[in-house]
Write a sequence for this structure.
């Protein structure tokens, strides 16, 4: 089975300013052929976990296995069956597109031709530039080449560390469509992202913050844990609305969410009409308050504040 | 009448035969939050570099805070604040030293610097951390500190290049609270972002595709015009046909 098992992993770093706990007793089971998302902000510990699972970093304690192989004892085997795309561009900038791909194929004892089927969809977009040096590629192209290089040896498991950070919404969408296709070809994928909306594309997600897993769930079930009423509000003057909502005693939390503000109340019995009346007294116009279903970002923010 | 603080006419930047920015024209009004959006490689960073006076245009005209982008780049720099997408403070200096350094560069007096340091660290809730190295602060705090320092000299305009990349959703919103507050004090905010929910916090946004501005209006009007439910949809409609991609 192409599953990943992580038990009680702990990792600390000793720095100039003291000890940083990067991973704090992390346990996680990822099924074979699952598209699993690790969702969390910078500094949450995502990269440390990737580096441990790809056998380039040792944990302080705890254990983990990839496709049944131990990350310490069987590191060589894991390297052969894993594809890893680190967060930072890490191909050879002075080799051409084709040379980079050839290089990675060769060190894994294979050829571009042998596994071409797996990368065809992505590589056709790169082919017009195959003689260009990797360092001269655009950001989106670099990302596609890195994915090809991570796939060229037909890995059982794919580790993608923030592949879409800093990428525009159109390219991000295309990238996730590629991941879906790879998952359908049988590969287990662990992918991290700081974008909450991308969580919806995963089979299951883990929310991680300050080295701790806050939640493991199917994306559609995350909202069930919210457990309270959530309202959305809008009016003509959105900034003043935010200030007035936060100043009102009955409001527990209020945050801007795109073209509306989301708020919760301290007492679930509070009638939203009372809040609307208060806001009209404050001279708000075109006011609209409705109860809404919480999304992943609402849930993550609630979990973070606990 | 609304005052114009940035005036751009047919601004172009050409590298060889490649037009990174191809004759863009727009105005930014005083005190507004202006979202400067676009796909990777659309030319946003190149355009922004011309507006902050660190890259001379190939053609066209632009005035920033009343100063010419060809001849008055030093005056532009004195009248704006800038925060880059990469964290821009010195990790191996303390919070206080960073404030002193940047405030000093912008010509604040020692008395002003002392007063601003107290005010700024209190407002950010990091008064107790003032003598700690910036390296030891969480990323969210660093970014809020970098923003506060970018406006320490009370500039007419602050330019923010993807200020919220990678930060958690709560910090991202706290950051926008600071942007709102700066705008309410009369500072014009010129901001780029890949978070489309943030685009909706702007008074007006422009969307750049392949070196040209494809659309410019308030988020509500753009959504109406393109019959879209969110700015994300508007963006995808406009940027889907992009030929270029880059960072």
């Amino acid at each position: 089975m192409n599953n990943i098992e992580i038990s009680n992993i702990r990792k600390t770093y000793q720095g100039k300013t003291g000890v940083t706990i990067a991973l704090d007793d992390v346990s996680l089971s990822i099924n074979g052929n699952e598209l699993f998302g690790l969702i969390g902000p910078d500094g949450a510990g995502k990269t440390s976990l990737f580096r441990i699972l790809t056998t380039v970093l040792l944990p302080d304690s705890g254990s983990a296995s990839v496709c049944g192989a131990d990350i310490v004892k069987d590191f060589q085997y894991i390297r052969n069956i894993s594809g890893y795309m680190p967060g930072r561009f890490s191909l050879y900038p002075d080799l051409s597109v084709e040379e980079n791909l050839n290089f990675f194929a060769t060190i894994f004892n294979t050829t571009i031709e042998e596994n071409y089927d797996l990368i065809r969809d992505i590589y056709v977009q790169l082919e017009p530039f195959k003689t260009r040096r990797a360092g001269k590629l655009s950001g989106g192209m670099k990302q596609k080449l890195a994915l090809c290089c991570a796939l060229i040896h037909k890995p059982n498991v794919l580790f993608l560390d923030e592949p879409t950070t800093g990428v525009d919404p159109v390219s991000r969408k295309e990238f996730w469509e590629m991941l879906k296709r790879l998952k359908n070809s049988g590969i287990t994928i662990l992918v991290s992202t700081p974008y909450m909306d991308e969580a919806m594309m995963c089979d299951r997600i883990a929310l991680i913050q300050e080295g701790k897993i806050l939640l493991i769930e199917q994306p559609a079930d995350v909202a069930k844990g919210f457990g309270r009423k959530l309202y959305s509000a809008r009016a003509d003057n959105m900034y003043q609305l935010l200030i007035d909502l936060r100043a009102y005693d009955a409001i527990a939390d209020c945050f801007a969410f795109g073209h509306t503000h989301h708020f919760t109340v301290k007492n679930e019995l509070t009638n939203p009409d009372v809040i609307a009346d208060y806001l009209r007294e404050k001279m708000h116009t075109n006011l609209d308050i409705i109860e809404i279903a919480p999304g992943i970002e609402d849930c993550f923010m609630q979990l973070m504040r606990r | 009448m609304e005052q114009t603080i940035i005036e751009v006419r047919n601004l172009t930047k050409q590298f060889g035969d490649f037009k990174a920015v191809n004759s863009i024209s727009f105005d930014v009004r005083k005190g507004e939050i202006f979202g400067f959006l676009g796909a990777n490689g659309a030319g946003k960073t190149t355009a922004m570099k011309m507006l902050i006076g660190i890259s001379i245009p190939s053609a066209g005209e632009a005035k920033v805070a009343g100063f010419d982008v060809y001849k008055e780049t030093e005056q532009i720099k004195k009248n704006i604040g800038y925060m880059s997408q990469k964290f821009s403070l010195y990790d191996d200096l303390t919070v206080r030293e960073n404030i002193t350094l940047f405030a000093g560069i912008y010509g604040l007096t020692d008395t002003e610097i002392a007063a601003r340091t107290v005010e700024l660290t209190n407002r950010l809730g990091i008064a107790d951390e003032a003598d700690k190295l910036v390296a030891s602060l969480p990323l969210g705090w660093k970014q809020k500190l970098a923003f506060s320092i970018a406006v320490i000299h009370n500039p007419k305009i602050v330019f923010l290049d993807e200020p919220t990349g990678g930060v958690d959703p709560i910090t991202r919103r706290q950051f926008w609270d600071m942007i709102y507050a700066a705008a309410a004090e009369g500072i014009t905010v010129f901001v780029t972002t890949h978070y489309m929910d943030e685009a909706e916090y702007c008074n007006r946004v422009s969307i750049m595709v392949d070196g040209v501005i494809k659309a410019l209006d308030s988020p509500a009007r753009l959504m109406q015009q393109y019959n879209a439910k969110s700015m994300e949809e508007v963006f995808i409609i406009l940027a889907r046909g992009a030929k270029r991609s880059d960072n």
Residues 31 and 187 of chain B are 5 Å apart (CA to CA). Chain B touches chain A through 47 residues (CB under 8 Å). The first helix of chain B runs from residue 44 to 51. Chain B has a mean pLDDT of 91.
